[in-house]
Amino acid sequence: MLISILSAVIIFGILVVVHEAGHFAMAKRLGVRVIRFSIGYPPKIFGIRRGETEYSIGATPFGGYCRMLGDEVGEEPRPEEIGDYSRELALDVLDAARQHGKVLNGNSADERIIAIAKQVCGNNRAGGSSLTLAAQAREIIGRELSPEESAVLSEINSAGSVDDAVKKITEHPDRTLARSYEARSFPTQALWKRALIVLAGPGANILFAPILLTLVFMYGVPVPLPVVGDVKQGLPAYAAGLKHGDVIVSINGQPMDTWNEFAETVRSSNGASLKLDVKRTVEGSAVHESIVLTPTRQDEKTVTGKMVPTWVIGVTPSGDAKIQRFGPLDASVHAVASTWNLTGQLMVGIASILTGSTPIREALGGPIRIAQMAGQYAHQGLADAAMFTVMLSIELGIINLLPVPLLDGGHLLFFIFEGARGKPLELKYREMMLQVGLFLLVALMAFVIFNDISHIVQG
Fold this sequence. Notes:
Oligomer: single chain
Strand content: 15-25%
Structural class: alpha+beta
Number of strands: 14
Helix content: 55-70%
């Protein structure tokens, strides 16, 4: 059980980092300030600030977030937001001084910021001559101050307190700060920029799949061998004399290297007779036999839950497998193809749930079932655990694109309304939709957890 929990936490942690890193990288690329990059939700158990961003770890592991400047629902920035932005700018200066190697007096961040403000903005002298603001800043923090940083430090130097300065800025926002806030905040960006930032999260999860799969295929994946496991009575294989442990060497003279090749040959036979070259062990010796049989049609359930007639002979694989490794180029090709197929299957599966073709109780699993599956794949080996991670990554990317408020797809839905109307949807409607989305997600989480428990109870 412990391995299952640890495996689930590690896998979810990787996928959250990938997802939020997509938002983070695109926001940075487009000039939006990222306040915090967190793995897990509060309470915070660890945090470190580097540059403009605080990188933290929360005590709740299943999730994470990338908090951008001004990414709340409000239509216009509140004075409090500009006040908070001024504090962030002061911390930027403090971090720059730290990186520059400047030793500052003070037990707290606020005391060190006040010390910087006094040295940079006060009437300090060096060598008997008055230093300019720019020269003094370069000496303290290793670079010149931006106009907005200069405005904040001047206010702190004048007030003698960071809190008092922030309070004054909140009550009477400086025009320079307001312009800087609008340039760096998420809500004030052009519509296409906001859409790209939101899309980057799910896109990173989907893009992560072929990257990880490439490494998996290079590392080596188990490929089922054409060795017969169970033989079902009443079907052609049983009637023709196939037995457990038989190795399918060829069909109609075509070599069979893997179980998938064997199964696909049977499915595509269209009911024509097949000549199987079989190797089996008789009294300790390997002998070859030829068996002729004719596949029959039997209904099989597809990923959509529908029963489709398929050509079968009535055998299952034994589980014997070989490790197959690919070079970088072949691994990349197989990874892209596998990602495409998995994405298609997952989209069809989600559609079948929404249309009712697949019972929702059978299709949906919550954190308990995912942890169980993570543990099972972890026990099977690194390649199997990685394949499970790939599947979850694609699924996370697709689900996040669903037009449900609170998900990335919900934000994109708001953007579509905004593009069609030429202005954002009214705040009251957005808040109403977010409340509905929150209710739906909480209800879904409660359902899948109850579903997981009921499966455990029922065995």
